[in-house]
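Dear Dr. H.,

I hope your travels went smoothly. While you were away I took the liberty of generating a structure for the chain from your last submission, since the lab meeting agenda had it listed for discussion. I wanted you to have the full record in hand beforehand rather than looking at slides cold. The sequence, exactly as received, is reproduced here:
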Amino acid sequence: MMVKRRVGPMCFFALATASPLDGCYHVFVDAGANIGIHTRFLFEPSKFPRSSFRKVFDKYFGADRDPLTTCAVAFEPNPMHRAHHLRQQALYERRGWRYVPIASAVGARAGNLTFYANIRREAHFLGSTSEALGVGFGVADREGANAGKYRQATPQRKIVRPVVDFSAFLLQTVASRKLPTTKSLTLPAVIVKMDVEGVEFAIAPRLLETHALCAVNFISVEWHCEDKFLPHKLEAADGSAIHIQNSASADSKRNALLAALKSQATEATCAGHFELSNMDDETYWNHRSFAEMSN
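The corresponding predicted structure, in token form, is as follows:
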């Protein structure tokens, strides 16, 4: 018998007797979920016909996948989106769909990470101050000394959020889950979408080191190399500093990491197991209504 459970960010790994993903045949991991729209592409595909990510779900999970044994985990550290994720989780639970929103960031190691909301820059960029959408949230202070025309006279508040070791999560929680009995002709699969505002430059080396992507079938990574996202001041898994100051160094580091990831995907121990993509599906990025789900 499967027991439904809500899992908070701090107790996620404290379940000694079972993985929170036990019973999940397919798993979608959304790292940097924003408002969780990609999970809606997974469970409510007919409502989002313009989404390109729907094709990824159909390819690896099957168009006829069972929503009761398909699970989604969403990492989103922006506190502005928490209530929205909990609303989505509650609506999905009514239908027996397993959606686990975790109010943490992902990184190369567990700990804490400082974020900035960049609300004033967002308002300037969008031309509106009526509603903060959270699109500027990230690890870079984009209103500080290097922000150019977006520089603000007063500093913004730092937001410190917990961080989950992403490689450990993939290996210890996702890959070790107990699969349910099913008549599906599609093999169990894991899909990852990673849009983590620059932290990919710390996570990717750790994924390579641990071979964690050998537990994954498809991963889409959005690389934040443009000057507007910089600088990146990160920590590697061993605690050493990773500083990326400009787009030229970001491009160079991204290209080296991409080459290493593509090479690992063809190694004998991980041959052809994960497909690497840079798909960035921003359709419906601000679709917040659950009107269709409320009946």
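Two observations you may find useful: Confidence is low (pLDDT under 50) at residues 1-16. The first strand starts at residue 26 and ends at 31.

With kind regards,
E. W.
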